[in-house]
Amino acid sequence: MKKILLLSLIMALMACSGNVKYVSYSDYGAVGDGVTDDFDAIIRAHAAANEAGLPVKAKAGATYYIAQTGKTAEIQTDTDWSDAKFIIDDSKVTVENRGNNFNIFHVTSKLPSQEITTVKTLKKNQTKLDLTLAYASFVVATDNTTMRYIREGLNQNNGMAQIDVFVVDKNGNVDMKAPIIWDYNTISSMIAYPIDTKTLTVKGGHFTTIANQAESRYTYYTRGIGVRRSNVVVDGLVHVITGELDHGAPYNGIVNIARCTEVLVIDCQFSGHKIYSTIGAANAPVQMGTYDTRVNSSTNVTYKDCKQINDIHSTTTWGIIASDYSKNLTYDHVEFSRFDAHMGVANATIKNSVLGRQGINIIGSGVFLIENTKVHAGSFVNLRDDYGSTFEGELIIRNCEYMPNNGRRSDAVLVNGRYSGQHNFGYTCFMPRKITIDGLIIHDNNPPDNYQGPKIFADFNRAFTNADYVEQFPYVITEEVVISNLTVKSGKPLIVSNNPYMFRNVKVTYK
C-alpha cells in the first residue's frame, strides 16, 4: 500500500508538470501475455490512477489474464481498454470468490453515500422530501416490513422487501420522470448516493470468460464490471464465453448496473449463456436464469447500438438481460434475445430494435412504448405470470412487426399472461389500462389447425368464464384498446380473446 501511495504521489506530481497523461497497467507490472495473472498489477494501476486523478489506458494488443481472485479493481477515472483483451478464468473459481463483492472491476464514485434518517414516511408520487443534501443524489428506500413480488410457480418465494429508487436534487425535490411508486409508512433504510456531474467513460476491451464448472445451483457468479456510479458510459465492450459444460452455475452479467442513474451502454456486444437446470423452490426441475448484463435498482439506463453475438433465436441460451426495481429503461437499436423487467420497471422504451426467442417480458407501471421494433417470440408482449401479470399504466405499440415464434407453427397473441386471482403477490395486479396499437404487422403465416385469427389477449384464466368464478385477489382488466394501421398477413380477423367473458368490458376501437 505504501508503494502504491508513493507511486500515486509521483504520478500526481508528474501529471502537474505535464509529463504523465495516463496510467498504464504495465507501469505496475502487468505482462499482458495472456498467461501471467496480471490482476494484482491491474488493481495497483487503478488505485494509483484514482489517487492521482489520471485516466487508465491498456497497452495496445495486450492480453491480460485474470484467474481466481477475491479482489476487485476500483475504477474511478476514465478507462480506455481499446483493443486489449481480458481472459477471465472462472474454471477454478471457488464459491467464496464468485459473489457480489468480487466483481472484477467496480466503477465507483469518490463521493461517499449518506444514510437519511430524518425522513420517516414516503407517499406515492410525493414531489419533495424534507431534507437538504450536499449533492443531487440517487436514493434507495427500503421497507423490510412490507413484502412485494411474492413469486408464484416453480421459483416461488415469500416475497421481497419493498424497495423504491428515485433521484432528488440538493433541496429534496424528486425528479418526477422517475416518481416514487410505493407508500412507505415504515422506512427501514434510506441511502443517498451522490450523483457525479462529470461523465466517466469505460471504453473498449474484448473480454473472454472461461465458464465456471460449478454445480448447477442458484450460486450466481458476479465476475464482470459492476457499475455503481451515476453518469457512466460503457462504450465498445465485447464479451464472449468459452468452456461451457453440461453443468454450471448462472451469471449476473459481464456488465452489472446497480444503485445509480444515467448509464449509457453503447456499441457493446454480449453473449447469451448456456441454459442449465436445477431444482426450484417448488421441488421441481426449473431452468435457471443466467445473464450477460443486468440492471438492478437504477434509473435512466440506456442500451444503444448493442447486439448479441450468438443467435437471438437459440433455444440453448438464456435471455441476455434481466432488470429489477428500475425505472426509465431504454433499448435503442438493440438486437437481443429478450427484454425482461423481472421485479418491476416504471416506464420503459424499446425502439428501432429486434427481439428474439424470449421476446418482451415485463411487469411494472407507467408507460411502456414499443416502437419500430420486430419481435420474434411466442407473444408480442408477455406479462410475467410469476409476478401477477401486472402492468399498471399504458402500453403503446407503434410501427412494429410481430413474427410469432420466429415463423414456426404458432398461434399469435399480442398480450400474454396468466392470472388465477387466487394468489397474493403483495400488490393489486393490473393489466395495462389503455393499449394503443398504431402500425403493426402480424406475420401469422404458419398458424395451427383451426386458427381463427390473432388475439389481443391470451386466455389469462380459463376458469374465469362466468360470474360464478370468484377472484380472491381481483384483477384490474384493460379498459380500452385503440387500433389503427393493423395488417394481419393471414387475412384473419383480430380477436379480443378466446376467453371473451373475462374481457367482456374492454372497449376496442378501430381508427
What does this structure look like?
The chain is mostly beta strands and 511 residues long. The protein folds into three domains: 2-89 and 99-106, no CATH class; 114-194, no CATH class; 311-511. It is 6% helix and 41% strand. The protein has helices spanning 2-17, 39-52; strands at 23-24, 33-37, 56-57, 63-66, 73-75, 79-89, 105-107, 114-115, 137-148, 160-168, 189-194, 200-210, 225-227, 232-235, 238-242, 252-258, 261-266, 269-270, 277-279, 285-287, 291-296, 299-304, 307-308, 321-332, 335-351, 354-371, 374-375, 379-383, 391-402, 413-416, 434-442, 455-457, 480-488, 507-510. The protein has a 26-stranded parallel β-sheet that branches. Helix 1 packs across helix 2. The protein is globular, with a radius of gyration of 24 Å. The chain starts with a helix and ends with a strand. The model is unreliable at 12-17 (pLDDT under 50).
Key phrases:
mainly beta; 3 domains; 26-stranded parallel beta sheet; four-stranded antiparallel beta sheet
Helix/strand-derived category reads mainly beta
Shape: globular
Our estimate of the beta-strand percent is 35-45%
Largest sheet: 26 strands, parallel
What is the number of helices? Answer: 2
Helix content class: under 10%
What is the count of structural domains? 3
Work out the number of β strands: 34
Give the overall average pLDDT: 94
What is the rounded Rg? 24 Å
The low-confidence parts are 12-17
Oligomer: single chain
Distance between the termini: 70 Å
